[in-house]
Amino acid sequence: MTVYLAEAIGTMILVILGNGVVANVLLNRTKGQNSGWMVITTGWGLAVTVAVYSVGRISGAHINPAVTFGLASIGAFPWSQVPGYLLAQMLGAVLGAVIVYLVYFPHWAETEDSGAKLAAFCTAPAISNRVANFVTEVIATAMLLFGILAISANSAGFANPGEVDLSVVFRMGLQPLLVGFLVWSIGLSLGGPTGYAINPARDLGPRIAYALLPIQGKGKADWGYSWIPVFAPILGGVLGAWLFVIVGF
Known about the structure:
Elements: H1 3-26, H2 37-59, H3 65-73, H4 82-103, H5 105-110, H6 114-119, H7 130-156, H8 166-169, H9 175-190, H10 200-212, H11 223-226, H12 228-247
């Protein structure tokens, strides 16, 4: 399996299990309807864990352009592979969203709230404030990258952040589970204002799928907001990675 196929499959798994839990909570007449934010954040943490365990030994399970850019910015990942990773992540995210759509096919017609339908695909702010929303996503993603590098350093004992190789770190042991806990914690602590995209592919790929799929009674894809969960996580990923380098951990 190539690293690019692994990234596509890993991101697909992430979106199937992550967007799937949102659909389960928000759509009408599901078994999990109205089960709340704790279920959503737990589902996303477990989704990351399963995805990382599934493909981590092959591609390092970036499954997130913010991780790819963050690692490349500190020399821990070759820039030559960045375009391939980004394309694979986007394709995997779109495919994962389509699968969630098929799984919950009867429930789209049963759900009158177009906002709930959109939320099952992508994020939206609780309070629309572009500056605050952007800053929130930057901080949350910086925490993600800093945490991933800290977990990697503790497990692999590298002396220089540029030496990190996630395909080695995530090959075995509890590291993928710890990353899942990290995402769970970020969701519980920092996810309330924006829904914590912290992943451009996870947000943009399903948003594109939402715009294209024949979902009964759907609203607009909110393209006016869509740039925030793309550019803010990339900036946050780079800042989080460099913060790790600067503090000398």
